[in-house]
Amino acid sequence: RTWVEYRLFPCDRGDMGTSALRRIRAAVRQRRYELTAHALEEMDDDELSEADVCEIVLRGSIVAELTHDPRGLRFVLRGKLANRTNEVEVVCRFLPSERLRIITVYAMEQ
């Protein structure tokens, strides 16, 4: 079993992850992102669109940074969509090219 170290950001600490969140949102606004096949499968399973994913990134917040991954730092963003009762999480990381890779997306169970 592999253990991953991470930092959790309490919801009331809006200052944490601010610069990373700005960078992530800028990548989405400039369409410098890609969705993995896994993310697309999960989106399909949870009936989420690419627009939904962008909305979570642009309106949600970083709730965790997964720090010990040989491929690089991963960010977990969480937010709510207007048309859903449950929250959605988006896991992403920056590639060396500064392109944002959206690794997975999933609706949280209620």
Provide structural commentary.
- This protein is α+β, with helices and mostly antiparallel strands.
- It has helices at 18-29, 37-45, 50-59, and strands spanning 6-8, 33-35, 61-66, 74-80, 87-94, 100-107.
- The protein has a six-stranded mixed sheet with strand order 1-3-4-5-6-2.
- The longest helix has 12 residues, at 18-29.
- The ordered H/E elements are EHEHHEEEE
Number of helices: 3
Which value, in Å, is the CA radius of gyration?
Answer: 13 Å
The low-confidence parts are 1-5, 10-15
For the termini, the CA-CA separation is 27 Å
Task: Note the beta-strand portion.
Answer: 25-35%
Broad shape = globular
Q: How are the strands ordered across the major sheet?
A: 1-3-4-5-6-2
User: Structural class per helix/strand content?
Assistant: alpha+beta
Binned, the helix content reads 25-40%
